[in-house]
Amino acid sequence: MSARFLDEPARAAFAKAIKTIEDPSAIEVVIAVRRSSAGYRHANAIVGVAIALAGLAAMLFAASEFSTLAILVDPFIVGAIAAGLVELAPPIKRALTPARLREREVRRTARATFVERGVHNTRDRSGLLVYVSWLERQAVVIADSGLDHPLPIGVLATIERALTAAIPNGGVAVARALETVIAKLAPGMPRRSDDRNELPDAIDSDLQRGPR
Q1: From 10, 43, 140, 158, which residue has the greatest number of CB atoms within 10 Å?
Q2: Residue 150's CATH number
C-alpha cells in the first residue's frame, strides 16, 4: 500500500535526513512524495479492451447460448469494470507503461513541483527538491542554480539512482539513502552565520489521497 511508504517511522527518518543535511550547510531540502506522476489511462484501456474481447470470445464459443443483447452488452460491462479495477493495481500500470514514458512523466512533474513549491526562492538559490513517485518507483533530484558549482558533475544522477534503488524497500530506506548520499555534499555549501530555514521541512505528499 502506498500509505505505508510514508508511515511514521519513514517521516521520522526523512526529518532526520533533512536536519543532517541542512544543519551544517546552506542547502535547503524539500521532499515531495507522489502516489503517481501521471494517470497512465492507456493501461486501463488495454486491460479493459483485452477483458472485453476475452469475454466476447468466451460467449461466442461457449457451449451455452447467450442472447444477442447479452453478447453485445456484457463484454463491455465486464471490460469497463476491469479497466476501473486497474486503478487498484499499480504494478499493472507500471508493467504496461514503457520505462521511457514513466521517466518522462516523473521528470515533468518533478520540474513542475520545483516551481510550485518555490524551491527556487531561496536567497542563495540553494534549494534542492527530492521528488519520489511511488507508482513509477522513481526518484528525481532537482538542484537550483546556486548548487551548480558545489555539486560534482554527475552527482545528481548518482543520487537519483541510489534513491530509486531504495524505493521498493520503503520510505525509511529512501530517507536513509538520502541522508547518506547528500550529507556528503554539505561541505561544498557551508552554512552562513545568518542562514535561516527558508523552505518548509514538512513532507509534501498525496499518498493519503485517492488515485490521480
Answers
A1: 140
A2: 3.10.310.50
Q: Which residue is it, cell 538520502?
A: 178
Q: Per-residue pLDDT tens for 178-187?
A: 998 887 776 6
| Sequence letter at residue 183 | A
Select the more confidently predicted residue: 209 or 73: 73
Residue 210 lies in a domain: no
Q: Indicate whether 23 belongs to any domain.
A: yes
Specify burial of residue 51 (Cβ count, 10 A radius: 0-12, 13-18, 19+): buried
Q: Is 57 helix (H, G, I), strand (E, B) or coil?
A: helix
What's residue 111's pLDDT?
96
Q: Pick 74 or 207 by higher pLDDT.
A: 74
Q: Retrieve residue 90's grid coordinates.
A: 499499480
Cell of 201: 521541512
The label of the residue with cell 526529518 reads 15
- Residue 169's closest CA among 208, 212, 134, 128? 134
> What value does the CA radius of gyration of the chain take, rounded to a whole number of Å?
22
**CA dist., res. 90 & res. 138, Å (int):** 13
CA–CA separation, 31 and 111 (whole Å): 13
Interval 14-50: pLDDT, tens: 999 999 988 888 889 999 999 999 999 999 999 999 9
Predicted TM-score of the model (pTM) = 0.88
DSSP-assigned letters across all residues of 143-199: E-GGGTTTSPTTHHHHHHHHHHHHGGG-HHHHHHHHHHHHHTTGGGSBPPTT----S
